[in-house]
Specification:
Number of helices: 4
Helix content: 10-25%
Radius of gyration: 49 Å
Strand content: 35-45%
Structural class: mainly beta
Distance between the termini: 93 Å
């Protein structure tokens, strides 16, 4: 049996494997009472074994590695976020090119039939017969319904009785003053003269007040209100009053020879008794900032009210109280005629009788136009009332579409223009501009103008109330110089003035180039890169391209942006937009 030898263990390892001797028992400190101060602790020498040293060494290595990782993270954040990098990448440029560009306006409008008529009931009654229903096609003159109305029959009977009464009536007609005032332009009449019905025998004016019709610029439209005080002056008699009042505002469009647009303001003021119509006068108003507002020009004074006194019947004159410049009171008798004037009243009664007969005929209604019955609200045996709209007929062979065009584009729309329309299902139509409203509807930040289009609908594919989208070209340029929209930059020159520029490539400084503070403008190329900021004039633009009117020629390489390449051959990369 061979001898078994134990492997030799180095003394150092043997020492490490040898269990450490048990520590001696620790002497317990003496019991301390709560009121006694604690005795100072005795420091014992620390015994560092080999295992403890190895464990401490590993901890130190772990701390160093942790600090190194944290340092790398901090450096990476600084490098990515806070490091100033003057390198913005490679220049990406494209040549200016010749092409076409257009600007379009889009929106929607509501379609309605061009011709629609509604049949109404002239008097209360009961439907005896009904010949049509909703959806029926009808032709002009075709019977629609028949209504019995006791009310209409009674009205006809009364008209006939009035005619009989007038034939028997003996009396006279009297013309009275409708209000207090002064008579002017009196017609000279003598008893026995024949006065015709509707003759103007005088004018009655209210000269206790006068008024002015003045025209103010639309720039004051929001500053002038009804009831606002006005200062009126009449230079010829050196008269001035602060008692003028704005009584009415008419938003008309008075065009001056200079091309201004003005609206009418009516100003009334008291007459002290020394003024009359036809005097040159003017007025001034004050805005909310106490600034005076003056009209385009002065005007002649007018009587506050003027009414022509006309006879309501004709006949021989019995008595006249008409005198020029005579003051009269409301109700005063001005003219008296004999009963012969009743002949005219008889004519009026005859008209009333004819109206009553027409109402009776309307109770047996017929279609006024060709079309489709789109609404019928009556039935046989049902009651109807005067004024009821019972049948609506619509001729939808031609439809009308009203669109709203804002004030930026209304100038591009003309009568007779053709505008493309389409519905939600892709159907296409062509509208012709037949009307353009001259007064816009003010909205938020802009005004819109209603524009009427007529659309041929012979196939009946359009229905009243349908929404149609529209689109039309407002402007177009062909064979023009174009650049991408991102090539046009807004910059400030060295004087701080805003300039619209395009950076073009040139070996030498081109005409129209300006100087910039490049230190304050990162993201744009510099002259040492052979790119120069040239001031340009722009025209039409859309989402992708801009028309260049001057400053850039076709073929010029224009700066678009910087292309940022990935560092160290890594993945990714991007575009830096200046």
């Amino acid at each position: 049996m061979p001898d078994l030898k134990m492997p030799e263990v180095p003394e150092k390892e043997l020492a490490e494997q040898t269990p450490a001797p048990e520590a001696p028992a620790v002497e317990q400190p003496p019991r301390q009472e709560p009121w006694e101060a604690p005795a100072p602790a005795k420091k014992k020498p620390k015994a560092h074994s080999a295992a403890a040293k190895k464990k401490l060494f590993k901890r130190i290595i772990a701390i160093v590695l942790t600090l190194a990782i944290l340092g790398g993270i901090v450096f990476g954040m600084w490098y990515v976020v806070f490091r100033e990098d003057d390198s913005v990448g490679s220049i990406y440029a494209e040549p200016a090119y010749i092409g076409s560009i257009q600007s379009t306006v889009q929106g929607s409008g509501n379609a309605n039939a061009k011709e629609t008529t509604t049949v109404t009931i002239p008097a209360n009654g009961v439907v005896e017969q009904l010949f049509v229903a909703g959806g029926d096609m009808v032709f002009a003159g075709q019977p629609l319904f028949s209504v019995f109305s006791q009310t209409a029959q009674d009205a006809l009977q009364m008209a006939q009785e009035q005619m009989n009464s007038l034939n028997e009536k003996l009396g006279s007609l009297t013309l009275r003053a409708p209000f207090s005032g002064k008579l002017i332009e009196v017609t000279e009449l003598s008893p026995g003269d024949h006065v015709s019905e509707g003759s103007t025998v005088a004018k009655l004016v209210d000269d206790t007040r006068l008024k002015l019709s003045l025209y103010f610029s639309y720039a004051y439209a929001d500053q002038i209100k009804v009831g606002q005080a006005a200062e009126v002056s009449i230079p010829a008699v050196m008269y001035t009053t602060q008692e003028g009042v704005v009584e009415k505002i008419n938003k008309v469009n008075y065009i001056t020879p200079e091309g201004g647009v003005y609206f009418e303001v009516i100003i009334a003021f008291p007459n002290p008794g020394t003024l009359t119509a036809g005097m040159e006068a003017s007025a001034a108003l004050t805005d909310e900032f106490d600034m005076l507002m003056f009209p385009y020009e002065g005007a002649e004074t007018q009587y506050y009210e003027t009414r022509a006194l006309m006879t309501k019947a004709g006949g021989p004159l019995v008595r006249s109280n008409l005198l020029n410049y005579a003051n009269v009171k409301a109700g005063d008798v001005l003219l008296t005629m004999s009963a012969e004037s009743l002949e005219e009243q008889l004519a009026a009664a005859q008209e009333k009788l004819a109206e009553a007969q027409a109402n009776m005929e309307a109770l047996n209604a017929s279609a006024p136009i060709d079309g489709t019955v789109i609404s019928c609200t009556i039935s046989e045996g049902g009651e109807v009332k005067a004024g009821d709209a019972v049948i609506t007929i619509q001729n939808n062979a031609t439809m009308v579409v009203t669109i709203q065009v804002d004030d930026r584009n209304i100038g591009f729309v003309k009568l007779g223009d053709m505008i493309e329309l389409s519905n939600y299902s892709g159907g296409s139509y062509l509208g012709i501009v037949t009307n353009i409203e001259m007064e816009g509807e003010v909205g938020q930040g802009m005004s819109t103008f209603p524009v009427t289009l007529e659309v041929d609908n012979m196939d009946g594919s359009l229905y009243a109330g349908a929404w149609l989208d529209y689109s039309f070209v407002t402007s177009r340029s062909d064979d023009c110089v174009l650049v991408p929209t991102t090539a046009v930059k807004s910059v400030a020159d060295l004087e701080g003035n805003k300039q619209t520029v395009v950076f073009i490539q040139r070996e030498e400084r081109p005409e129209g180039a300006i100087d910039l503070d490049y230190a304050a403008m990162p993201g744009v190329p510099k002259p040492e890169e052979n790119y120069w900021p040239v001031v340009v004039s722009t025209g039409i633009s859309d989402a992708k391209q801009v028309e260049i009117i001057s400053g850039v020629e076709a073929g010029d390489m224009v700066f678009i942006n910087y292309t940022v390449e990935p560092e160290n051959g890594g993945m990714g990369g991007g575009v830096y937009f200046g």
